[in-house]
């Protein structure tokens, strides 16, 4: 029985390791063997299977005594029900896109439930240090591959099955200019890579402050992750990482951070002034316009900053027209495969567009529920996840960030694990 009870935990570890490499492996292997669609669907089928097994094991071991767990499961099922209700209420919607959109939107909760259940059912002691060490080890490899990618031929990923026809671009540039390449490593795109790196960068920054003896190693890993983050040229990820690290520093190490700022306030102020003045003076330079502002008056393409605003506005207009939702898959990344593409450039506008105001409200409630439980735990790892949630959500206000499988798996699995560990002793097991 112990071996079966360990399966959800093994599933969590496997997904944390595999998801950052899913796009690369699925594109590469399917280019040799075929079956790309099977690879795409396979991970979600595996997640559904593992989550169903995990929920069943929680019931078998504890019954319904862990009320918070079952409340989250009930809320997640209600979120799923809203998707099907809106889908069936719009019979003209694309069935394949609706099913895929439902999977993309609800797998956030599935990841959290799996992590939570893994913590509740695992028969032994879970060592968080080893789990988070594995997360940083995987992200370090992803970051290293991304940096190497920057120096490789621009079409290098095409040798591994990457192509627009197969659903993944082999190259990314700022405003499609070959002079300004962006890395995505083994993830789908540069913005997703940047968002994925927010959690390990936040963890490493906190560990750098927490453990003086390991600062040389943490500095090296931070340099590796920071360089990879920079080479994504994802401004939302830059800002998200900055907010996350700063929030964790003030929350966990307020005295140390305040002492540092008081001691070096002049240097910090000077650096900020130099950056602001330098950015203002060089604002018309070709490199600065492209790398920092992603805006060049000489380009014939629509300014990316204006596109963010236009897409969000179109999404809000669509919500106003149909506040109960257009159907899953009608907005966001999934809509690309339909006749009507709706990119809202905002994950929360996307959800409201797809499944209505009621769907968005329930999503926010489930997010708040998890954050509240993490806050009650209030240890280093919980604080790192809360602050990184703020950083990633900032990205999601400008992009469809939570739709990415690697980003979603990383945060929601870890959040579920921590909440589950905090609650595993709150109810006595029914079966030993």
Reading the helices and strands in chain order gives HHHHHHEEHHHHHHHHHHH
The structure class reads mainly alpha
Task: Quickly count the helices.
Answer: 17
Rg, alpha carbons: 22 Å
Major pleated sheet: 2 strands, antiparallel
Across the major sheet, the strand order is 1-2
Number of strands: 2
Task: Provide the helix percentage.
Answer: over 70%
Number of domains: 1
Beta content comes to under 5%
What's the shape? globular
Distance between the termini: 9 Å
Mean pLDDT, to the nearest integer, reads 89
Uncertain stretches? 427-432
Helices, strands, pairings?
Layout: H1 2-18, H2 22-33, H3 36-62, H4 67-88, H5 95-121, H6 128-151, E1 172-173, E2 181-182, H7 190-196, H8 198-210, H9 215-232, H10 235-252, H11 254-263, H12 265-281, H13 286-291, H14 304-321, H15 347-377, H16 380-396, H17 405-423
Antiparallel strand pairs: 1-2
Helix pairs in contact: 1-3, 1-5, 2-3, 3-5, 4-5, 4-15, 5-17, 6-9, 7-9, 7-10, 8-9, 8-10, 8-16, 10-11, 10-16, 14-15, 15-16, 15-17, 16-17
Account of the protein in words:
The protein is mainly α and 432 residues long. It has one domain. The protein has 17 helices and 2 strands. A two-stranded antiparallel ribbon has the order 1-2. β1 and β2 form a beta hairpin. α1 packs across α5, α5 packs parallel to α17 and α14 crosses α15. The longest helix has 31 residues. It is globular.
Question: Which properties best describe this structure?
Answer:
17 helices; globular; two-stranded antiparallel ribbon; disordered C terminus; 432 residues; mainly alpha
